[in-house]
Amino acid sequence: MQYNVTIIGSGPGGYVAAIRCAQLGFKTAIIEKYNTLGGTCLNVGCIPSKALLDSSEHYYNATHTFAEHGIETGKLKINFEQMIKRKAGVVKANVDGIAFLMKKNKIDVYTGVGSFADKNTIRITASDGKTQTITSEKIIIATGSKPTPLPFAPFDKKRIISSTEALELKEIPKHLIVVGGGVIGMELGSVYARIGAKVTVVEFLDSIIPTMDSTMGKELLKATKKLGIDFYLGHKVTALETKGKEVVLQAEDKNGRKLELKGDYCLVSIGRRPYTEGLELEKVGIKTEKGLIPVNDHLQTAVENIYAIGDVVRGPMLAHKAEEEGIMVAEQLAGQKPHINYLLIPNVVYTWPEVAGVGYTEEQLKQSGRAYKTGSFPYKALGRARASMDLDGLVKVLADKTTDEILGVHIVGARAADMIAAAVVAMEYRASAEDIARMSHAHPTYMEAFREACLAATANRAIHM
């Protein structure tokens, strides 16, 4: 078969690129290693983790806040098997939806490992070893990433687990040790803490979610400690081993003080690495750098007809970043001139309270020497938050000291993941804090906190604080 465009990998970047290519009139194919489409995000990442986060939050509220609302529930118990079953149903509905979209857009789907025979020919090897080849004028690599193990303690997928296994456990851990206080560690750690597990987080750096504005990490730390999660920050893991049904972790702090923890599971969430195994990139002359595929500003590799997007190229490993890149490549191939402002790709942590940020962090502005001003507004001063009992968190706005242009917005609190979209829109149009401050915001809503933070950034004019 001959195609105009072929995409290797069906995650958010891959399947979105395929759909956009088909919309633009290209004869399109997509190759997926596994039997279901959607990649890590839909199968063992974003979607299933959010399903469990929601289920665990419902249980936590039922046991901790319903009585205050006047709702008496009696004795509650967790049906963990049903919780996992519901999660699987959510995943199936989403991946089935992607399969439908492939048919709707007349995209040919191939199942197997795609590898390069030459720059226009791809060999597809099925799980039974059978092979077939297709040719394509343009090829987009969208093979995503995999969890990174500790170098001295590989995943055994039973007791030392990655996020994939953490979404498929058969029991609630008695003591879940989490190595890494980043997005994945905090999300899955909070899931199990809410439903009764003892959770301990060990983080090498001195703060959690360290890639985000430091205020966000401090606020999330305070909030998640209320769940009973224990934290050991500034600790380096030196050993991790399984002994029967127990895991034993050894760590030390910066002063050399030793720490030993014992649990029944250890989730290692220290990051992800680009996944390019099996592509046989060497056959077309593409060399990786620190695991990543080098690309130019058009996401073009060293081979002019081959492009790469998502987690295998530079930038944050985010599903929506991969989607934007997939669309950009498709539209470039059609002769259009799309662009991506990487600074304005939002980052979200789906704990409760949620955390979201876009633009520069305060640390980045300090490091660059740019003059800025800041305004913040706490959720506890917000009428809507009081009504819903979601008092943890704040909105923080960073603006240029001279022009008042919004440079960064960082939110920790209820509905932060949805609220950040308003900040993205404002910053795409280079709004000032004064612009937002003078726009009417419905009352009572969480979004009022964004306006109040902008007011605070403009001569400390917040009304309700």
Describe what you observe in this structure.
A hairpin with a 5-residue loop joins β21 (394-400) and β22. This protein has helices at residues 12-23, 39-44, 46-64, 80-104, 163-166, 183-194, 214-225, 319-333, 362-368, 383-388, 416-428, 433-437, 448-457; strands at residues 2-8, 28-32, 108-111, 113-118, 121-125, 131-141, 145-147, 160-161, 175-179, 198-203, 230-233, 235-243, 246-253, 258-263, 265-268, 272-274, 306-308, 347-349, 354-359, 372-378, 394-400, 406-413. The strands form five sheets. Strands 1, 2, 3, 4, 5, 6 and 17 form a seven-stranded mixed beta sheet that branches. Strands 8-15-9-10-11 form a five-stranded parallel beta sheet. The protein has a five-stranded antiparallel beta sheet with strand order 18-19-22-21-20, with helices on both faces. It has three domains: 2-147 and 273-342, 3-Layer(bba) Sandwich (FAD/NAD(P)-binding domain), CATH 3.50.50.60; 160-270, FAD/NAD(P)-binding domain (3-Layer(bba) Sandwich), CATH 3.50.50; 353-457, FAD/NAD-linked reductase, C-terminal dimerisation domain (Enolase-like, domain 1, 2-Layer Sandwich), CATH 3.30.390.30. The protein is α/β, with parallel strands linked by helices. Helix content is 31%, strand content 26%.
